[in-house]
Amino acid sequence: MNTHEIIHTQLEAAIASLSRARDRIANMEPDETREIGRQIESAAFYLEDIQYNWESLACSRTARHIFAKPTSEAL
Predict the structure, then answer these.
(1) Pick from 10, 3, 6, 1: which is nearest to 48 by CA?
(2) Angle CA 37–3–71, to nearest 5
(3) How far, rounded to the nearest angstrom, does the alpha carbon of residue 57 sit from its chain's CA centroid?
(4) How far apart are CA 29 and CA 27, in angstroms?
(5) Residue 72 DSSP SS3
(6) This prediction's pTM
(7) How far apart are CA 16 and CA 51, in angstroms?
(8) What is the rounded average pLDDT of the residues 31-41?
């Protein structure tokens, strides 16, 4: 699985967690606050991973771009 696919999967999971939390909040029972908190924490976990993977992807693209440029020594 490449980084793009990983990020896509993590986004889907974060969206699903937030959707479940949203749905539970709309019809919240008094004893559901703990489960809603878990869904929000789960989404936050996925978002942290997405940020890390996105930054890694951006850094690797920048590095490839820098190394692809000819240097003055190569000219």
Answers:
(1) 10
(2) 135
(3) 12
(4) 7
(5) coil
(6) 0.66
(7) 17
(8) 87
Structure token digits, residue 69: 């440029």
* Distance, CA of 11 to CA of 61 (rounded, Å): 20
Query: Is it the case that residue 13 has pLDDT exceeding 80?
Result: yes
Q: What is the pLDDT of residue 11?
A: 92
By the 8 A CB rule, do 32 and 24 touch?
Answer: yes
The residue count of the chain comes to: 75
How much is the pLDDT for 24?
87
The label of the residue with tokens 């820098």 reads 66
CB 39 within 8 A of CB 24: yes
- Residue 60's pLDDT is what? 83
